Amino acid sequence: MLPEISLNVLDIAQNSIKAGATLVEIVVEKKTEEQIMNLMINDDGCGMDEEQLERVIDPFFTSRSTRKIGLGVPFLKQAAEASGGTFRISSEVNVGTRVFASFHTDHIDCMPLGDINSTIFSLVTTNEELNFVYTYRVDQKEFTLDTREIREILGDVSFQNGEVSSFLREYLSENQLEVEQQ
Amino acid sequence: MKSLEELKAIREKMQGQVGFRSENEDGTRVVVGMATCGIASGARPVLNELVKQVNDRKLTDVAVTQTGCIGLCQYEPIVEVYKPGEEKVTYVKMTADKAVEVLEKHVLGGTVVEDYTLNKIKL
Fold first, then answer.
1. B91 in a domain, yes or no?
2. Is B90 domain-assigned?
C-alpha cells in the first residue's frame, strides 16, 4: 500500500504516460457534507482490451513487455475499498483508460490525500511533452491547471525554468487553499 | 485566485533570453525511477528536490526526468546520472539529501559518490 492517496495518483498517472497518452486528466473532488472524495484519472493512451482490463486489478499481473501496469491499480483499488468506497476502471484500445476511485474520508481506514500538489508538480515538470489537466474541487469551488494553457504562454520555455516552476508551485498551493476556504 | 496573468509577465520578462530548454544533447540527464516501487520507497521527494535544486542553481544544462521500473525494486529510490561521454552511474536507496549530494559532487563536481552507487551495494 502507498501511504498517501496522492502517491497513488502519481503512480496511476505513470501508467497513462507509459500508455503513450498525450493528455492526462486528473480530478480530485471533495464533497464535505457527504465526507466523500472522488478521484478520476483519464487518459487518451493506447488503452487495454477486455482481457487485459480484467487482469489489471490482479496484483500478479503486469504487462511486462510494455511495463504498463503492476501493483499500482490493485493498490488504488484496495485503498478505495478499505474506506468503504468504490473503484472502477474502464478502457478501450486506442481510445484510452478511465480510472475512478471513491473514498469515504470519515472512515478510519481512509488514507489521507497527502501532498497532491507535489504529485502534480512532479508530473507536470518532468513530462513536458505531455499535457495534463488537473482539477481540484471542494463542493462548488474548484481550480484547474491546464498545461496546454501554460505551454501557450511559455512557448519554448521549460516548466523546469526556475521562475516558472516557482510559479507552478505557488499556483497549486495558493489555489488549493482558496478552494478549501468555504 | 492566482491566475495565469502572472505567468505571462514572467514570460515577457524573459523575452530575448535564449537556451531555456535544458534538453540539449550535451547536457547531463538525471533520471529518477518513478514506478510503483520507486514511489512507494520515496522517489517523489527525491525528484522534486532535484528539480528544485536545478532551478535554484540555474543549471540550464542539467535536465531532471523520470523513468519507470528498471527491475531493481529493492534498491529504490534509484537515480541515474547520464553525463555526456561518460558511463551511466546508478545511485540506489536515495533520499532528497543524498540526491543533493550527488548533484553537487558528481553532476557539478565531476566526482562519482561511490558510497551510494549500485556497484558499492552489490559488493
1. yes
2. yes
* Contact (CB<8Å) A11/B48: no
How many Å from the N-terminal Cα to the C-terminal Cα in chain A? 32
Distance between CA atoms of residues A69 and A57, nearest Å: 9
A101-157 residue pLDDT tens: 999 999 999 999 999 999 999 999 999 999 999 999 999 999 999 999 999 999 988
Whether complex ipTM tops 0.85: no
For chain A, which residues lie within 8 Å of any Cβ of chain B, measuring from their own Cβ? Answer: 2, 7, 10-11, 14, 18, 67, 70-72, 75, 115, 118-119, 121-122, 125-127, 143, 149-150, 153-158, 160-167, 170-171, 174-175, 178
Is the Cβ–Cβ distance between B30 and B63 less than 8 Å?
A: yes
CA–CA separation, A140 and A178 (whole Å): 12
Interface test with B, best of A126, A148, A153, A167 (most B CBs within 10 A): A126
- % of chain A exceeding 70 in pLDDT: 94
What nine digits make up the cell of A172? 497549486
Domain limits of chain A? 5-180
Architecture of the domain whose range is A5-180: 2-Layer Sandwich (3.30)
Asked whether residue B14 is domain-assigned, the answer is no
In tens, the pLDDT along A29-56 reads 999 999 999 999 999 999 999 988 888 8
pLDDT tens digits, residue range B25-65?
A: 678 999 999 999 999 999 999 999 999 999 889 888 899 99
Question: A9 by DSSP, 3-state: which?
Answer: helix
Q: How far apart are CA A97 and CA A42, in angstroms?
A: 6
CATH code for position B101:
3.40.30.10
With CA atoms as reference, report the closest residue to A76 among A143, A8, A144: A8
Number of structural domains in chain B: 1
Is B3 a member of any domain?
no
